[in-house]
Amino acid sequence: MACDAGCRAFDANGLVTDDVFVAGDVARQPQPMFGYQFLAMEHWGNSVTQAQVAAHNMISGKTDRWPHLEVSAFWSLQFGNNIKSVGVPVIADQIAITQGSVDKRQFVAAYGYKGRVVGAVAWNQGKWLDFYEKLIEQAAPFPPPYDMTNPPADPTPVPAEFPAMTYPGRDATVVVTGHDPSERRATLVRGRR
Asked: What DSSP character marks residue 110?
């Protein structure tokens, strides 16, 4: 479900509703820190803060509403390895190891898109992610121009080479109806199989 930065849902005509709000894994909204791409942040932390914004905006006047501007973050413990991520690494066009060593399985990889930091992943080095979150919020240049603690042997960025993003529905989900501009509407099309 697409929504605006205030968690208000778009209807089938692409217009923002003022009485339907969405939050959680289903909510895709424009992310200003990431080129206004419509992204769904599928992690419980994002769902909690997005629900807080949606609830606040439901009971607030238009001038008192908040935008949902959280930097996505998650962590996981896998086979004794602590993996933490901040930002949206999958949109990156470059990656650089900025701290630690991949061989020692203790490192931080920064992700850049069009010359700015958009994400970071820490492998057994999660204590540094608050620093990278601030870089993302400030649209800091990529690669980060700082002397890092525990610098890697080779900090040279490499192409990210992520596969092209695919979308679950490649066919149109709405059709334009009406002949007069005042009658034009979009009608939801149910799956044709």
From this structure: E
Element (H, E) at 174: strand 174-177
Q: At a CB cut-off of 8 Å and minimum separation 6, what does 49 contact? A: 68, 70
Q: What is the pLDDT of residues 26-37, one digit of tens each?
A: 888 888 777 788
CA distance 95 to 37: 20
Cα separation, 175 vs 99, in Å, equals: 50
Which tens digits make up the pLDDT trace of 93-142? Answer: 999 999 999 999 999 999 999 999 999 999 999 899 999 999 999 889 99
Q: Which amino acid is at 39?
A: L
> With DSSP H G I counted as helix, E B as strand and the rest as coil, what are the percentages for the chain, rounded to 5?
20, 35, 45
CB 86 within 8 A of CB 120: yes
